[in-house]
Target: Phosphate acyltransferase
Amino acid sequence: MRILLDGMGGDHAPLEIVKGAVEAAKEITHTIVIIGDQKKIEAELKKYKYDKKQILIEHASDVIDNCDAPVKAVRTKKESSMVKGITMVKEGKGDLFISAGNSGALMAGSLLILGRIQGIDRPAMASIYPILGGQASLLVDAGANAECKPDNLLEFATMGSIYMEKVLGRKNPKVGIVNIGAEETKGTTVTKAAHELLLKSSLNFVGNVEAREIPFGASDVIVCDGFVGNVVLKLTEGMALSVLKKLKETLTAGLKAKLGTVLLYDKIKGLKSEFDYSEYGGAPILGVKGPIVKMHGASNSNAVKNTILKGIPYAEQNVVQTILDSVLELEEIKISE
Amino acid sequence: MRILLDGMGGDHAPLEIVKGAVEAAKEITHTIVIIGDQKKIEAELKKYKYDKKQILIEHASDVIDNCDAPVKAVRTKKESSMVKGITMVKEGKGDLFISAGNSGALMAGSLLILGRIQGIDRPAMASIYPILGGQASLLVDAGANAECKPDNLLEFATMGSIYMEKVLGRKNPKVGIVNIGAEETKGTTVTKAAHELLLKSSLNFVGNVEAREIPFGASDVIVCDGFVGNVVLKLTEGMALSVLKKLKETLTAGLKAKLGTVLLYDKIKGLKSEFDYSEYGGAPILGVKGPIVKMHGASNSNAVKNTILKGIPYAEQNVVQTILDSVLELEEIKISE
Model:
């Protein structure tokens, strides 16, 4: 298998990207192709010992940055590392493409170059949602589609369920819709209609999930529109940061507290790592004709390594084909409305 | 001033309601009228020493419970403590009504009995949003209107701003819209149009606020539709509970940690209280012709006491009249679209 890595995307590219690739390569036998400015990537690679047959460079002379308008960037920056990477997946020159670059451009590029899986109206970005002391959930859509129709939520639920089972190994995953009450009658016209569609599906649908239950792992797959998904992810991140900041201030004010904190040092560090997105791998784009994974823009080498290692099953487990196979059932449910 | 209290609403009524009223009465000179089953309330009051001229009972033979359909309950249960309380505000027999009962019924009753302030299309529920180590924000709408138009968000911003200034004493409060990006062009058709409306207003509008910034007090007034507002509030509550639970587990596993935790006991307890909704008072209903405040259904006596004490300015500061006075400016902005 050939894993394609955008060497130029993200806040710490190419330094952390290359370092992460070298670290990941030690744990796998697959080939990693880093796409980007040959000289810059070579300069970074020189810092490490690595197998030159396992880590290759594919030169790309241009870069899509975060200020670029997504569609325009994809159409005009043909020589960018991102466009090259997606195109290589389409041409069978790679099995998986990972980028920490411009999210909008990665979604636009996936749509324009690979195309949607027929029958999927709206591809989505899925995101691992960490559960303290428990197994992570998968949140779909994590922000790609701010406004959705009920059919789209059904698609997100189906694709999320397949990814959860195939890639994260959770059998018959529980699927819930984010809503403002547990009752069927609660919510917007969209969530109510989506609830009815999901009841007709063969998914393991557990109904509405209130936001309060999300951090406790209320369902394996958490379905919502991209606006709500973005709010859920960002607020969780903000709360975790805010609580840890407060905890640090609290636990170091006063001598007695300082002493207590010294005794607890390892525990608090462990708690912090449970919130650390870099442990959880990236966010797959679901519903396009090829495995594309988005990494956090601020990814450090550890995040890069984990995204590579945890992204491999997206390609190996034929997720794209399985989604394609599920479309017939989706069509029947949609038409029955 | 006469404060009307629903003696029968909430999970711990009338026990905690009466206890909270007695505790609040000690700190104020206003009269508190507890509305509900005379015998039950008398039985609770007998447990305490209190000024019989300051705490009165208004008998109500019926109760609206959480299973009741809101509008039907308001229309048919005329003798319920909730309907009586709202009616007493309308008739000038009380200056403020506080209830821990059925939220939907309290909103429906406020609309049907008191009516909307003319020019306010959608009354909203506002909620205090605690900021760790900082001044609380006010979230509007906290869940009353799942689907909103841009005009509604402008109304929420205006009413929230008035409440923040008059009741919580924050001068020229900063107003932000919850959105999935800081840029004007981000979001849904509704948030984009609301952004334009708010730019035309005389409010201290600071633009879009990403959910990640909410726990850090990004704006004094946080504006969003009721679906997003409910998600923000409930997720914050869930995250706080989840982190504290994990913290407790972490800090008591192993002897060294236990010892450290003993030294930190006071600090951790203090941290917990910062998350405690019962410290922050209730949620005002804004946009109806009278001051109505919703308490958390699980309110204990401390929450009841704080809601009474912190609710008084809603009546004293003429918030309803100020909202009425602001409607003209609102109409001009709406028409200019």
Q: What stands out?
A: The mean pLDDT of chain A is 92.
